[in-house]
Amino acid sequence: MPLTTIARVLAAAGLALAALIGTTAVPATAAAQDITWYTLVGLGSTKCVDIRTEDADYGARAQLWQCYGSANQRFALRRVGTTPQGRPFFQIINKEAPYLCLQVRDNSTANGAQVDQYGCSADTHQYWYWGSPHNGVHLPLVNLNSGKCLDVNAGAVHNGARIQQWTCNATAAQMWRTAQ
């Protein structure tokens, strides 16, 4: 094959690849704009899961706070997979820092382990699923790694109450709903 023919074939292949890359990037951008952001509202307090703005991004603690809809109280639920029981599990991504996900600190399985945010990864301590319904609206959020529920420490209802994991017990401190 003459050199000019090879050059034309390679040029055509390069253009086809560039066109393919160009057309697949547009839907990805559009999909990012279609993210739905929610607040996670507690049954026991009617307050929201909130990321402490006083903390650094990485390791910032989750707490309970009066709902006011700011970015540090808004989360997207990014589906990651399905449990063996058929329940979808997901990462909970913070709008204030969309590269950070809610997680159980230090991959802990202990009661009382702090829930905070850290760089999103494929670690199961960042994966959550909805547990069995309480009243049709409020559900427990269960950590895939520990099997324990997102919980407000001691059932507190005040601003700044610590968010942790605890053995699932169907109390109001562990029941959540999403709101837009």
Automatic annotation (TrEMBL):
GO terms for molecular function: carbohydrate binding. The keyword Signal applies. It comes from the Bacteria. Keywords: Lectin, Signal. Residues 1-30 form the signal peptide. SMART domains: RICIN (SM00458). Residues 36-179 form the Ricin B lectin domain. It holds the Pfam family Ricin_B_lectin. InterPro entries: Ricin_B-like_lectins (IPR035992), Ricin_B_lectin (IPR000772). Transmembrane segments: none annotated. This is Ricin-type beta-trefoil lectin domain protein. It comes from Pseudonocardia broussonetiae.
